[in-house]
Amino acid sequence: MKRRNTKSKEQVLQIFRQENTALSHEMIQSKLESVERATIYRILNRFHEDGVLHKVTGEDNKQYFALCKNCENGQHKHHHLHFQCLTCKTVECLENEITFSIPQGYQVQDFQALMTGVCSRCA
Ligand SMILES: [Zn+2]
Ligand SMILES: [Zn+2]
Ligand SMILES: [Zn+2]
What we know:
Layout: H1 2-19, E1 23-24, H2 25-31, H3 37-49, E2 53-57, E3 63-67, E4 80-85, E5 91-97, E6 114-117
Parallel strand pairs: 4-6
Antiparallel strand pairs: 1-3, 2-3, 4-5
């Protein structure tokens, strides 16, 4: 049982490495039909908690997950924009770091920014 779960975790991670874009639960489910829905949810939430993935809500109100690239030791740095293509619906992390300022006394825990438009593949 435990072994199977480990295998599924590896498969999910593998998909993220191959795709290089943000992925929704649905997209992962369609690539891993043999894995139960609830198991995929559990894996995604676990990766999110462990700081392997970060979440972004798409223009379609769906949750997308993307691999964390510049996060270290539980310190998340998601100061980048996300881009959702309105044609193919793909959500991507744009690597360019953005800076922002917030009023004194506020502490930032998470940062989600979404841009929509047409990606280079659909343009
Ligand atoms: Zn992160
Ligand atoms: Zn596109
Ligand atoms: Zn991102």
